[in-house]
Structures are given as C-alpha cells and as structure tokens.
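Students often ask why inverse folding is considered easier than folding. One informal answer: many sequences map to the same fold, so there is more than one right answer. In these notes we will look at a single instance of the problem. The structure comes first.
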C-alpha cells in the first residue's frame, strides 16, 4: 500500500476551498485525464486510493472526452492516478511530496506518452531466440540521477523472429538484458542461463540507451551468450510457524550502488530454504519478509552477496520484528479575532508520514520501499501509529487541509535524568522535525507529539520581470525565518516552484517575520520543502545566505492573506 499510495499521486497545488463552510462527510471526486499534448485520453483507468487502513481502491474509466467521476467517497485523503497502455505518469521529484485530494475536488491527471526500446535477440549463429524474456532497467532518470528504488518494468517476450518491444518507459537511461531466471517468472527453457546484456555483454560493459518520452529507440539487439547462470541459495530463520505463511525473499541487483531490478522467491514449508537460479555475476542485496498477522510483518536485515563465477550458498536471513512510531496530533486554536469561524483540520483528512532518509552511500544496502515509508491518519482522539518500518533514520511530516492552520512542532517527550531524593523525573523534548528519529529493529518509538496551530497566513504573488525577460526554468521562491528566536525552526522554511507565468503561492505559514527570495535551481539546489527540512542538511544555510543577501522582508499576521505580491529574481551569486 505504501508503494502504491506514495508514488503515483500527481503533483498539484492544494485545491481552494471555502474555509468557513462545514466540511462535507461524503461526496465525489471528478476530473479529466489528458495527454502531454493536451488531448483527452478516453478509456483510461483511474484509480483512487484512500488513506484509511485496508481501503479498497476505487476504479473508474474515462469517457470519450477523458472525463471521470468516483462517487460515494468518505471524508479522507485520496491519491489519484491513471493508467492507459503506452502512457506513463510524468516523473516527479523523489524528494517532493505527492498531492492528495478531498471529496469535492476536481482533478486534472496528466499522462505522458512513454518511450520505447525495441530490437531482436539472436543466438551466436544468428538464429532468432524465441520466447525469451527481455527487460529494461533504468540506471539514471531524465535528470541524470540514479534511481533510489528499482524501476521494474514487466519484461517482454520475443516473438518467432526474436523481436521484442518494450513500451511505456519513463524518460531516462537504461540497460537491456535478455534471459535469466530472475525475469519475473517468465519461463523460456533458458531459465538457468545468465542474463545477456545488450549488445552481448555482462552488466559491466552493457550499452546504455537514452529513452525520451514518446520516442522509439530501435536496433537495440542482443547477441545471446547462452552462458550458465549461478545460484544464490540459503535459508530464512526466526519465528516461522510451519503451519503459517511462508517467508519470501527479495533479490535486488545492485550495480555501482544503483538498485536495478528486483525479483522474489519463496521458502517452501519445512524451512528447506530458498533458491534463485540463472543469476548473473554481480552484487545483490537480499531481504526476507514474513507475514505473522494481518498488517504485521517480520523482515531480515539486508544482506549483500557477490556472485563471481560460482554459486553462493548457505546465506542465512534472520527475520525479526519491524519498528513502529506512535504518538498524538493535537489542535491548538487561536484567540485572534481574524481567525474566528475558520474550518478546523479533520483528522481523517490528515496524514502523518515517516520516510527513511538516505545517505547516498554506495555501501548502503537496499531495503524495499514498503519498509522505508509509512503513513496513517489519526483516529478521532488524534492518536496515530505508523507500522512496519525497517531500522534506520527517519524524517516525519504531516499533511493536512486547512488554510488557516500551520504545523507548529513535531517533538518527542523522553524520560529525563534518573530521579533522586530531591529531584523528580523530568521530561526532555526532542525536536524530531529538526533532528529526525532513529529507529531500531522492533522498537516501538512512542511519545511523538505533533501540534497543528491556528493562525496560518498565505502569500500569493508573481515574479517581477523587466520587459523582454522570461521566467528561468526551475525557479523557486523560498521563505526563511527572520526572527532570531525562530532561526533554527525547520518548519518555518518554505519552498515553492514558480509557474511559467511567474505566479507562485505559499500556504499554511506560521505568523511572523521572514526573508523571501526567488532564485533558480542552479543557484539554490532545492525543489521541495521535504529536502529543505531534512536533518543535518547544509541546504538551509545556503538558502538563508541567499535570502539575507536579497534583503527582502515580509511580515505575516495571524490568518492574513497577502495577495498581488511582487518579487524580483535573485541575481546569480546571491
């Protein structure tokens, strides 16, 4: 659920709402699916995934004009995605936050024509290799960045001519491989062979193919080497009930620190172990998982193995409980006259999320995304729990829909010094928003307190340009706290993308004084508040230096809406 819910949601601005009216409890979400050419996409499948546990996805098909509507929805948050053969969702920044929608919203879902790789697989004698699986593996995205998680595309099988065609590819750079048992279970009679990469090589010398949206890369042929593959085998140990569900093992090919592709195997009853056949030489990360109860999983620590001309046997993966994070979200109303009779946040339309922070080291072992992120909505009392998280460092965030409210703090109360005869037990508050949270295997991290406060302001404006100038690509507006007492408050750093017409908007701003600056992504490498607010990042210091040098200050009062604001782009070097 975490994978499906977090990744496909398109980015968009928060929908404008009447913040004085009572919130509806049921309703519909409607919209339109359009292509990158601005044309409707008829017959597309639209999927809505709710934020409540065990929500069954709701599906709808678009009509001839690309329109859709899903009715009978409750008051919660929804991720909206669309699928049509040959199309893909526009790539988004992995550090950016997806957008969620509420009942009553109208959604424009954009699809982009995917790229194509096609070619032929032939034997050493030039004969076509028929019914063999061919897969494309992304090594860099359209921005030249390596993927954090494998971009797994369904493999395509060659026809009687040995020809394959892989379509619906996101823009980026790929390598192509034919054969190998880890090709998602497609059987060709060559399952025990090692994969052959185009043109006729191992992964280390494979040709790289640049794929652009809507374009076709032809002649990507593979001369099949028919080399025997290797075996990776071992056993999953731990609290395994022979009569219960059996462990599964995730095998991920890792090249130069980049996770390229993943496949699965199962350990049969009796604990006789697991095996992967047809494995090529290279580095692999293994993680075992086991379901012990509905919604409760065990996983192993990731284990890296290197295959080099021989089988790897005797790998032992010990499953253990995952960690969890729990706490309470509270609302802090304002007494300011300008903030009266405003809509309060609804807990069912609020999401608390935890995401594992990555260090970017090639030595980091790969853990599947589903164990690196978790999210949930608070119950009616404001209590929340995020389950099934692997050990590691996490950043926490809160998404909510209420124009006049802001995120005041994310903290954790931990026991203070040991009591003495004169001193009682004290509580220390740890700033989770700034420092993050370190989670151990099986740890239940409780005492997380999240406060949403009333009194938020908003800022809407445009970038002021001289005659003949245009908005530079990847331009952003940043807000930095100017008050000394708030200078280290990461929740008062805000970032938004400038539209092509120069317009920008920032919402849910705590009252107070800020430096405001506009710049390009080349000068200030940031494109999301999530990245700006990460623990131990030097990025905030760079943004602060640029903002203070620009010397443009803005002051917000409780529940104030600033509109028609004009701002200059910071000159290079600021």
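Output (designed amino acids):
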């Amino acid at each position: 659920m975490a994978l499906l819910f977090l990744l496909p949601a398109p980015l968009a601005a928060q929908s404008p709402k009447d913040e004085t009216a009572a919130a509806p409890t049921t309703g519909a979400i409607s919209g339109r699916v359009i292509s990158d050419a601005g044309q409707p996409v008829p017959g597309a499948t639209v999927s809505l995934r709710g934020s409540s546990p065990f929500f069954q996805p709701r599906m709808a098909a678009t009509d001839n004009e690309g329109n859709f509507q899903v009715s009978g929805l409750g008051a919660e948050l929804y991720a909206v995605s669309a699928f049509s053969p040959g199309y893909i969702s526009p790539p988004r920044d992995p550090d950016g936050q997806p957008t969620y929608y509420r009942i009553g919203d109208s959604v424009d879902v954009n699809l982009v024509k995917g790229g194509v790789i096609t070619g032929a697989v032939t034997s050493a004698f030039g004969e076509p290799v028929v019914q063999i699986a061919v897969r494309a593996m992304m090594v860099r995205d359209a921005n030249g960045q390596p993927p954090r998680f494998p971009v797994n595309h369904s493999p395509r099988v060659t026809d009687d001519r040995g020809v394959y065609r892989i379509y619906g590819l996101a823009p980026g750079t790929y390598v192509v491989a034919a054969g190998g048992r880890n090709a998602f279970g497609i059987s060709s009679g060559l399952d025990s062979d090692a994969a052959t990469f185009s043109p006729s090589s191992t992964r280390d010398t494979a040709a790289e193919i640049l794929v652009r949206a809507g374009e076709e890369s032809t002649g990507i042929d593979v001369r099949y080497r028919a080399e025997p593959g290797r075996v990776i085998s071992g056993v999953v140990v731990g609290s395994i009930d022979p009569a219960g569900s059996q462990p599964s093992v995730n095998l991920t090919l890792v090249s130069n620190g980049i996770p390229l592709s993943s496949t699965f195997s199962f350990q049969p009853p009796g604990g006789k172990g697991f095996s992967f056949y047809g494995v090529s030489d290279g580095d692999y990360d293994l993680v075992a998982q086991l379901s012990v109860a509905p919604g409760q999983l065990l996983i192993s620590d990731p284990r890296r193995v290197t295959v080099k001309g021989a089988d790897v046997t005797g790998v032992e993966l010990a499953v253990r409980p995952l960690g969890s994070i729990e706490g309470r979200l509270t609302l802090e109303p304002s007494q300011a006259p300008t903030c009266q009779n405003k809509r309060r946040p609804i807990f069912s339309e609020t999401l608390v999320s935890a995401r594992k922070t990555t260090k970017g080291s090639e030595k980091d072992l790969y853990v599947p995304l589903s164990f690196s992120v978790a999210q949930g909505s608070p119950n009616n009392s404001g209590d929340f729990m995020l389950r099934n998280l692997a050990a590691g460092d996490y950043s926490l965030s809160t998404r909510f829909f209420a124009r006049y409210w802001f995120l005041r703090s994310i903290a954790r109360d931990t026991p203070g010094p040991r009591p003495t005869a004169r001193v009682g037990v004290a509580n220390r508050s740890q700033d989770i928003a700034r420092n993050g949270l370190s989670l151990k295997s099986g740890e239940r991290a409780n005492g997380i307190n999240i406060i949403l406060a009333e009194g938020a302001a908003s800022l809407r404006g445009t970038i002021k340009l001289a005659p003949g100038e245009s908005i530079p690509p990847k331009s952003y507006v940043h807000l930095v706290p100017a008050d000394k007492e708030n200078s280290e408050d990461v929740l008062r750093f805000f970032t938004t993308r400038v539209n092509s017409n120069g317009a920008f908007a920032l919402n849910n701003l705590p009252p107070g004084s800020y430096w405001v600056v506009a710049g390009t992504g080349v000068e200030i490498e940031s494109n999301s508040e999530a990245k700006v607010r990460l623990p131990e990042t030097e990025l905030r210091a760079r943004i602060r230096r640029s903002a203070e040098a620009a010397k443009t200050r803005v002051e917000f009062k409780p529940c104030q809406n600033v509109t028609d604001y004009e701002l200059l782009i910071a000159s290079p070097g600021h």
